[in-house]
Amino acid sequence: MSSARLITIANQKGGVGKTTSAVNLAAALAADGHKVLVIDLDPQGNASTAVGAAHASGTDSSYEVLLGDCTANDAIQVSPEDSNLFCIPATIDLAGAEIEMVSLVRREFRLYDALAKGFLDEHGFEYVFIDCPPSLGLLTINAMTCSDEVIIPIQCEYYALEGVGQLLGNISMIREHLNPELHISGILLTMFDARTKLAEQVANEVREQFGAVVLGNVIPRSVRVSEAPGFGKTVVHYDPSSTGAMAYIAAARELHKRGDYPPHPTTGAIGVSPEIYAELEG
Ligand code: ATP
Ligand code: MG
Description:
binds adenosine-5'-triphosphate
């Protein structure tokens, strides 16, 4: 639908770093000179807060866009921190959207239809990050019908892979019925605590299971990352030299440099590296 890379950040497990990853990857890419849009699809509005977007109830937001009450152009805001960083915010009004959308036509494609009208290319966006709520409902489906790529943040903690199987199943289902281009192009290990054996174990397990689609850069647990939202900022803007910010900057550059991981015809939803692709092809 556009030359931008559209990336859904999803994991129905709560508190794994979806929002933190969406806004910081976006902020890091914007700081590197790319034009980036964050679409907040979580009624909690945390991504909107982090990029400094107004999101009081009634503000033109993803809710109005999904319901067809305003255009993406009406809802877009520029971040006060960076003129390359834009946001379509979420307000608390979005909390009712999943139910309100059930009776609408093309309910799975409301976001797709809103973005498909040349909006992304007119603005010259190179990256679009869509922050999802911790569920696999219609909001997440709307993100996945308009993205090719999914990045799954995985917290290096107990039960890290809980629910990931279900998420993979949903991605396969969406590939089959709604968006054949959808695939996982990245798995990002978050809140890594180098002092614990457990974090190391989880990271190894994830790498064993998913291979090269896991980004080499890992996000450490860092107090600066958790403080930043309190100042209405990403950690990239709040404290760019902190370990958390530097990790997100490195992960963003890795994501940019390696590009998309195309899905392999036989491995389905999981993106694979060009090397593995070649191996599979024999
Ligand atoms: P939800 O499912 O509620 O949308 P989420 O998956 O978007 O949650 P975040 O909101 O990004 O998760 O992170 C959960 C909490 O962990 C937040 O308070 C955030 O500030 C904190 N956090 C995220 N990443 C880190 C990190 N690397 N170091 C320390 N704290 C972090
Ligand atoms: Mg979130």
